[in-house]
Inverse folding.
């Protein structure tokens, strides 16, 4: 499951930059640390 990152200014989707995301609509650069994403760890897999 993948969550879509949204621009804090205009709420459009951001591109998939690993460090700096860009909004195609308002052309804003957003650092990944400034995006509120919830980290969900994977379930452990039996070896």
């Amino acid at each position: 499951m993948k969550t879509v990152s949204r621009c804090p200014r205009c709420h459009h989707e951001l591109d998939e930059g690993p460090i700096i995301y860009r909004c195609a609509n308002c052309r804003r650069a957003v650092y990944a640390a400034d995006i509120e994403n919830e980290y969900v760890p994977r379930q452990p897999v039996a070896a």
Summary: The chain has a mean pLDDT of 79. The longest strand covers residues 20-22. Residues 10 and 26 are 7 Å apart (CA to CA).
